[in-house]
Amino acid sequence: MTSLASPRQSFDIGRLARAVAPSLPLIVFLAMFVYLGIASPSFLEPSTFALILKQSIPTTIVSLGLATVVMAGGDDVVSGGIDLSIPAAAVLAAAVVADLVTNHAWFIGPALLIGLLTAVACGLVNAFLVVLVGMTPLLATFASATAFVGIGKVVTASRRINVTDPLVVWLRDGVIAGVPVGVIAACVISAVFYFVLHRTRWGLNLQAVGGNRDAAEISGLSPAKFIATAFVIAGLAAGIGSIFVLARGSGWAPGTEENMMMEMVLATFLGAAFSPRRIVTLWGAVLGAVLVSALSVGFGSVGIDIFWTGCIKGGLILVVVASSALSRKVNI
Amino acid sequence: MALNIKRACLTSVALAAVVGLASIATPAAAADGNLSLKGKRIGVAVVGTQHFWDREAFNGALDEVKALGGEPVPVDGGRDNQVHADNHDILLAAKVDAVISILGDAAVEPKFKALKEAGIPVFTVDHLSPYSINNSTSDNYYMGTTIGRFMADAIGGKGKVAVFNAFEGALRICAIRTQMWKYVLQDYPDIKIVKPELAESFANAPEDARKKTLDLLTQYPKGTLDAIHVGCWDQPAIGVVQALEETGRTEIKVTALDAGPDTLEIMAEKNSPFVANVAQQPHKIGMTSAMNVARYFGGEKLLPQTFVEVVPVKGPDSAKKVYEDLGYGKLK
Fold it and tell me: Fewest CB atoms less than 10 Å from the CB: which of A49, A202, B46, B92?
């Protein structure tokens, strides 16, 4: 706001921005869905909806992890909570499980446990870097993501590993009462996360730390402890997500984390647009993941010029993040 | 009389050569004037469009579907095998009449199965599958043995060779090409393959291979490495050549497979270390697949595989000639 602007003008612009900016992602998404619905009749069919839910599973799980970190660290992308390494940790854990099951003939149970522990260890590394070393979460998790991807390549020699274990196949293809097993599992996991973070004292304290770190500290809470735990929970989410990564790809393949990271960031921050206070929430992240998946499915059904797909998704991330920044600026 | 016969023979040889060359450069659509895809929606799924081969196979299929009166429904995996696999679900939900699937690893198999069960025929390009009606591809057996012979010749039948071989276990076409190359090398006992074999990245292959080659060159000082071969394609070879030029190690010979315009240009340079290749015709392969879809709907019985001619390339002059013959233009 420059000093040249009259008070009246600045009030009007501010009011307009306050009214429109937070809802901009919703408006854009709504417009796109209306277009997709008109352009592709099959987009509105129930089978497409089931497909959208099914394809959103890995993104949903890792977005739960990111939402937890953002809720604990605050939603300032630079100084607040962010964890870009969750997809990389999930893919690393998936690599470990695939290697153990296929190359070393392990039973799936113990292999999954090792995979889960690997992902939790990734969360601990992030907690160490952010809380004890004092690195910015954005940089710390960007660096650790690179390392996790590297370790995954060492484990797998950067070669695809097929997994045909019945549990993985069941999670991929199984149906209970007409609903895909993976979707049911994702709902249960989301409900557990929701309960822990929104319905327990510990969860509410974690949100208090993210909402106002100083106030939380004055009231006797230890922000460092909550932030560190949030990173470990994100690691746990990555570990749980790893089995869905395996199910989705019928095995492990290098490079899966890149697209997942983009979708996770888009889903989590898009979710904030649904919250009355425009903050990142768990259910917002889940809804965001479903919408991002709907978009991918919609683009495919309509046959949008594929060379534009990347531009559109990148543009949407910009709209979502810019809207979040703008609404914060306006509120100050 | 004898002279006439000789002349007639020469004329027919020349004619055959011209026809042969024409069949390399031009699509064969005219031969099947009665083929039609009118009123059919044909899903075309490609693993990515960053590389010449993928893009051209994709464009070839799209062009031919349109030329035959069909409506293509394109989906792009963005060089991510899992996204590519998921895209088949989108085509299933969109209820296309047939699917042409280009490349992809084992993650696509359950998707093919689902498409087949839904009565949607699947046609593959460079992917052998029990669920595919027909696979359009190059003669991978010939490619593998030819590049094996060419590489052995280039290093005088002896020496050490490093190989980029990430996909032998993941893609059948890569297994054929690399194993045929190794089969030829069995008859050259003085050629040793460096262990462990290298694994190139699926996405960003040139830069990834450049870094890996720089590391390799540190391990193998001048005089201890004679060739670097890329087992299944040639995008990594771009980075390999860069690394050799950066370090002045152009005495090491490079061989690979695919020979699109980008790599033919590198091969055509004077004293290029990139000495041998086998050129495919991806656009024609894509077109062939689309024509096979039309043949299938026209009631023709298709063979499990359709092979499209390949063209061996050996040395700069050959690279220039093939560049011109395949219609990429003219190189100085």
Answer: A202
Per-residue pLDDT tens over the stretch A86-100: 999 999 999 999 999
Q: What is the mean pLDDT of residues B192-218?
A: 93
Helix (H) or strand (E) holding B102: strand B98-102
Q: The tokens of B211 are what?
A: 């870094």
Inter-chain CB proximity B201 and A306 less than 8 Å: no
Q: Cβ contact (<8 Å) for B95 and A306?
A: no
Residues A274, A284 contacting (CB under 8 angstroms):
yes
Residues of chain B whose beta carbon is less than 8 angstroms from a beta carbon of chain A are: 49, 72-76, 78-83, 85-87, 89-95, 105-107, 109-110, 166-167, 169-170, 196, 199-203
Give the one of A55, A157, A305 whose C-beta lies nearest to B86's C-beta: A55
Residue A12 is predicted with a pLDDT of 67
Q: pLDDT band for A20, please (50, 70, 90 cuts).
A: confident
pTM exceeds 0.90 for this model: no
How many degrees, rounded to 5, is the angle at CA A33 between CA A27 and CA A34? 90
Cα B239 from chain centre: 18
Residue B52 near residue B282 (C-beta atoms within 8 A):
yes
Per-residue model confidence as pLDDT tens digits over B211-222: 999 999 999 999
Residue range A43-331, CATH number: 1.10.3470
- A158·B170 Cβ contact <8 A: no
Say whether B81 and A258 touch across the interface (CB within 8 A). no
The topology under which CATH files domain B31-137+283-307 is Rossmann fold (3.40.50)
* Residues of chain A neighbouring B73 (CB-CB closer than 8 A): 300-301, 303
Is the domain B140-258 a CATH 3.40.50.2300 member?
A: yes
Distances (CA, A) of B62 to A43, B94, B129: 22, 17, 22
Give me the residue spans of the domains in chain B: 31-137+283-307, 140-258
Say which residue the tokens 């501010």 belong to: A14
- Of B150, B155, B165, the closest CA to residue B192 belongs to B155
What's the confidence (pLDDT) of residue A274? 76
Q: What are the tens digits of pLDDT across the range B136-161? A: 999 999 999 999 999 999 999 999 99
